[in-house]
Amino acid sequence: MPTYGEETFKESNVNYLNKDFVSLKQSLMNYAQSYFPNTYKDFNETSPGMMLLEMNAYVGDVLSFYIDQQYREMLLPLAEERRNIINMARMFGYKVKPIVPAFVDLTFTSEVNALSTNRSKVDYSDGGIWNPGIEIVSNTDSEIIFTTLEHADFTITGSNDTNTIGSTNSSELASTYTLSRTVKAVSATEKTLSFQIGAPEKFKTITLPDTNVIDIISCVDSNGNDWYEVDFLAQDKVPISVHYTDDVNRTSAYGDAGGLMSTTAVPFSLSYVETTKRFTRETNLDNTTSLVFGNGILKDGQIVDGSYIDLEQIGVVIPGQTNDLNEAINPLLGNEYSTLGETPNNITLTIKYRIGGGIASNVPVGDLTSTPDATADGGNINATFTSVNNATAARGGKNEEDTIEIKEKAKAFFSTQNRCVTKEDYEARILNIPGKYGNIAKVYVSRAGETDLLTSPEAQTYAEGLSELNYALSGPLDSRLKEDGILHRNAEDLVAGEINLNQMLNSISTTYDYLQDAKTAYTEKIAPVGPNLYSLSSIDIYVLAYNNAKHLVGNPLFTNNSIPSTLTSNILNYLDNFRIMTDSLTINNGYIINFGVIFDIIAEKYADKQQVKFNCIQKIKDYFRIEKMQFNQPINKSQLEFELMGVEGVRSIGHVTITQKDDYFYELYQPGQEIPSDATLPNSTYTYSKVGNNFADASLDENGGQGTSGYGYKYNFKNNLSDDGTIILPAHSDTPAVFELKNPNQNIQGRVR
C-alpha cells in the first residue's frame, strides 16, 4: 500500500479569512491562476468564466453572512430578532411580558357604626369584607378598567388606614365612623374561558385567544381540582395563600391557629403544597398566551399510562445494581418518578385570567372615583362603599417590552440566582414579602453560633422534664421516652403537641400527685425550653412590625405586643424557597427603644417664638420619622442640632437631649454637681420604675411594674454617648434594636427663649 507524506500534496494557499464578495472573487481568481494556469486564462470581466467565478463569490458571500448572523443571534447581547431574544430569555428563566399593566393604590371608604358601649371606638364587626376583583372604571376613558388585587377588609385596621367620625347623635357622640382602606389595583379586566380536553397529550398546550394577558388567576378542572402555575414543570412545590376568612383554624386576622391574639393583623397565611397538577405560562410572538401542561398521567401518586413517563430516566441504574431505579435520579423532578406533572385528560378546564395594561392605563390622580356597586363577601354583608378615589397616579403601565428591555431584564434575572446567600439577600427578601402575609417594618439578620442539641444545658433540662413527665403519667406516654438519648422522634412529636398537653393538664384536677408532678415537669422544664430546642439556628432574623397606629411591635414577653406566630410562620415558609439547604433560620422579636426629645432654643429677637417652637418640633418629627430608623442605627445629635439651626428664627441652641426622663439632667449638670432639689422633670416624657436603686433593664410590664405601659426597653443614653458627645450609639448586636420616637406629640417638648 502506498504511503503518503506531506511532499505528496500541494500546499493550498486558500485564505479562510476572506468572507466578502470582492475578497472571495479575488481568491477564486488567484486559485485558478495558481492551479490551472494553462486551462483558463481569460479573466476579462465579460467572459463566461468570470461569470461563474462571480456567482460562486456571491454564494459564498451570502452563506458567510447567514453564518455570522446565526452566530450573532445565538448571543443575547448581539441578537436582534425578537423571537430569538425571547427564547434566550426563557433559557435564563425570565418570562417576557406581553404588556405591562399599571398599578395604583385605591382608597375605599365605608360607613361603620360606633361601638355601642364606647362611642369613641369603632365597631369593626359592623364592617364588610370585599374579595379581590372589584372593577373601577376610569372617568376619562371607559375602556380603562382597574381591578382590585387585595381584600378590602373593614373588619381589621392597619398602619395606613384612617378613621374619622362620620355622624354624631344628639349627645354629640359619634354614631358612625368613616373608615378608609387602601387596596392595590391593576389595570386589567377579568375573563373566563372553558376548554374541553379529550385524550391525553404530552405537554398539552392551551392558547388563550386574547392578547395582552397579564396573569392567570385560576385554573380549575371539572372535578373541582386546582391546577397551579409554576415557573418550570419540574417544580413540584407551589405557594398557597389562604385568607383568614377561609381558614377554619383562624377566626380573626389578629389571631393565629392556636387562638393567640396580637395587635398586628396578618390577613393571609402562606404555605407550600406538593402537586402534580401544574402548568407553565408562555408568551407567543403574536402576544397571545399559552398554558403548557406536564407529560404524565398520575392518580394517587401512581403512573396510570406508562407511555407518558420521562423517557430520559429509563435505564438509569446505580452502580452494583442490575435493576432500573424506581425513583428518578434527576433532583428537579420531585418525589414522583417519571413525570413533569400531569397532563389533563377527558375533563373541562375553566381558566380565569386578566387582560389589559399598556401605557394608556397610567391614569392621573382622581381619575378613579366611580363607586362600585359591589356586595360584601364577608363580615357585614349589608355594608356598602361610600366612595373610592386614587390619591396617587397609576404608574408602571407600558406597552410590550422591547428587545433591549428583554435583554437587560434577562441578564438581571439570571444574576440574582433566586436564592438567599448574603445577609443583604435575606433582608431584601423579607422586606419584599407581599404585604398580605404580614406587615414587616424592620429586619436585621446575623449569623448565629451553632449549638449541640444533645449536650447543651437546655437539651439536658428538656430531657429531664420529658423523663419526669413520662414517669409521672406512668404509662400513657411512650415508654421509649425513658431511654437514653431521649431527644428522638417521640420527643419531637410531644413538642408538636405541647399546647394540647398543657390544656389537658390544666383541665384535669390537680388533686392527684402524679398530675401535679406532671404539671411541674412540664411548666418548669419543658415549656420554657421547648420552643427553642429544635431550632438549631445558623441564622438569626430579628423583625419588627407595625400596628394600626404605625408604632413598632415586637416584644417576646407579651403575646399581644409580639410578632404574630402566623407572620413568623409566613416568613419561614417564604424563605424556605430561597435559603441554602444548610441554613437554619430562627425568627426573633427585635428590640424597641422609645425615647423623648427635650430642647432649649434661643430665637432671634424678631421671631415669633410660638411659630419657631412649632417649626422645631416639626423638624424633630421629620428627623425621627420611623421610616428612616433601622436596626442598629445610631442617633446623630450633632446632625439634629444642625437641622434645627436651619429653622427660620433660630439663633442658637442651648441643648437637645435624647432621654428616657431619668437621665435628662446629664446635659444640664456636670458629673458630681448637685442637682437642685426643686428641679423637676418634664411631664411629657415617660419614666421607668426602679428596681432597688437601679432602673429596670427588662421589657416593660404592661401593668406598670417596669416602666410606662406600651413603651420599649430601658436604655442608658448617657453611657452610650460617643467620646465627643455627638452620637448616641446603638444597642449591642446581641440585642439589635430600633430607636423609635413613639408619640412625638407627647414625647417632644422644649422652650424657645
Walkthrough of the structure:
The protein is of the alpha+beta class and 753 residues long. Among the domains are: 6-72, no CATH class; 81-96 and 401-414, no CATH class; 97-188 and 356-398, no CATH class; 457-533, no CATH class; 592-752, no CATH class. The strands form 10 sheets. Strands 1, 2, 4, 5, 7, 8, 10, 18 and 20 form a 9-stranded antiparallel β-sheet that branches. Strands 9-15-14-11 form a 4-stranded mixed β-sheet, with no helix packed on it. A hairpin with a 2-residue loop joins strand 16 (298-299) and strand 17. The longest helix is centred in the first third of the chain and has 25 residues, at 48-72.
Q: Could you write a compact summary of the structure shown?
A:
The chain is of the alpha+beta class.
Structural class: alpha+beta
Shape: extended
Mean pLDDT: 75
The gyration radius over C-alpha positions equals 36 Å
Number of strands: 33
Percent in helix: 10-25%
State the major sheet: 9 strands, antiparallel
Strand content: 15-25%
How far apart are the first and last residues' alpha carbons, in Å? 117 Å
Low-confidence stretches: 303-338, 450-454, 475-500, 508-512, 662-667, 679-709
Q: Report the total helices.
A: 14
Key words describing this protein structure:
alpha+beta; 9-stranded antiparallel sheet; 753 residues; 14 helices
Question: What is the element layout, followed by pairings?
Answer:
Layout: H1 21-35, H2 48-72, H3 82-91, E1 103-115, E2 118-122, E3 128-130, E4 135-137, E5 145-148, E6 152-153, E7 162-168, E8 174-197, E9 205-211, E10 213-221, E11 228-229, E12 237-243, E13 268-274, E14 278-283, E15 288-293, E16 298-299, E17 302-303, E18 347-356, E19 378-379, E20 385-389, H4 403-416, H5 423-431, E21 440-447, H6 457-473, H7 489-496, H8 498-507, H9 513-526, H10 530-533, E22 539-546, E23 552-553, H11 565-575, E24 585-589, E25 591-594, E26 596-603, H12 609-623, E27 635-636, H13 637-645, E28 650-659, E29 690-691, E30 694-695, E31 727-728, E32 737-740, H14 744-747, E33 748-752
Helix pairs in contact: 1-2, 3-4, 6-9
